[in-house]
Amino acid sequence: MASARFAQTVRQFSTSSIRNKLVKPPVLVFGIEGRYATALYSAASKQNKLEAVQKDLVAFKDLMAKDTALNGFIENPSLKRQQKQVVLGELAKKMNYSPLVANLFGALSENGRIQKLSGVITAFEKIMSAHRGEVFCTVTTAKPLDNVTLKDLKSTLQLFLKKNETLQLELKVDPSIIGGMLVNIGDKYVDMSMASKIRTYTNMIKQSV
């Protein structure tokens, strides 16, 4: 059974021999969700089905957001694994999802981990973002930036990017930082807020008293 083979790949992912046979993802994702997402990425890469798989997963994620009954079914611990496997398999067939997505549903159900499906989808999306060279950045300021400042900010953030990477910028407003900004880009974090400076100066004064 295809889902059984997929489950076996996930179980053996931690061994070096199997890991060497997998297509290495552009970014590491951890935990059980990361193992399933990585195995799915490898399988989809070998079949040149990455975009199709992500499209199906996004569609299913949207379906879960709208259908409370579906969420309840997935999260219900009293239902048997086989029952969930059959129902989700039929749903995948009805929605014309990729066989790889159907295999994922089957493997998670068979292993009693279907409740982690949402986390697996999130982990897969993270891998795909890195695959496309997207670098996510969140900038928080005390008030909205004007157009000139925003343009300068984008130019500066581009310096953090490697060749063929693209910036995905999200702007947030938080008056509590008083002034300056907080920057999260990739795995980097920079606190240039006025609130942070005030805390630093306050601690220095307290230590000197």
Automatic annotation (TrEMBL):
It comes from Acanthosepion pharaonis (Pharaoh cuttlefish). The keyword Amino-acid biosynthesis does not apply. GO terms for cellular component: membrane. PROSITE patterns: ATPASE_DELTA (PS00389). Component of the ATP synthase complex composed at least of ATP5F1A/subunit alpha, ATP5F1B/subunit beta, ATP5MC1/subunit c (homooctomer), MT-ATP6/subunit a, MT-ATP8/subunit 8, ATP5ME/subunit e, ATP5MF/subunit f, ATP5MG/subunit g, ATP5MK/subunit k, ATP5MJ/subunit j, ATP5F1C/subunit gamma, ATP5F1D/subunit delta, ATP5F1E/subunit epsilon, ATP5PF/subunit F6, ATP5PB/subunit b, ATP5PD/subunit d, ATP5PO/subunit OSCP. NCBIfam families: ATP_synt_delta. This is ATP synthase peripheral stalk subunit OSCP, mitochondrial. The keyword Disulfide bond does not apply. GO terms for molecular function: proton-transporting ATP synthase activity, rotational mechanism. It is found in: Membrane. Keywords: ATP synthesis, Hydrogen ion transport, Ion transport, Membrane, Transport. Belongs to the ATPase delta chain family. InterPro entries: ATP_synth_OSCP/delta_N_sf, ATPase_OSCP/d_CS, ATPase_OSCP/dsu. Its main location: membrane. Transmembrane segments: none annotated.
